[in-house]
Design goal:
Elements: H1 2-21, H2 31-37, H3 41-69, H4 73-100
Helix pairs in contact: 1-3, 3-4
Amino acid sequence: MRVSGIVLVFLVIGHVLIMHVFGGGIERVNFQFVAVRWQSPLWRTWDWLVLVLAIVHGINGLRVIALDYIRPTGVRIAVSWSFYVIGVVLVALGSVIVFTFDPCRWPEIHC
């Protein structure tokens, strides 16, 4: 939790500054901007790390909070495993989108 939180602070602050503050602000962010940005492995990796660390950090935080309030052992195990499954599914879906994104498959974009 601590490591993911610290790394997330730097990644998210960098994301906000780069995407929304520097270089023209939020008005320039649209589908084509993201399509061009994701041509670079650096930005795909950056965004993927934000996604994965945020999901891992959030799911683990929910699990810790739930375990503070759930007393029966069987329910605690079931809730923990449900959080793990949800986290894995979300990371898998997000990873598929980040790494298989192809702007040329959209009819509005001419590659």
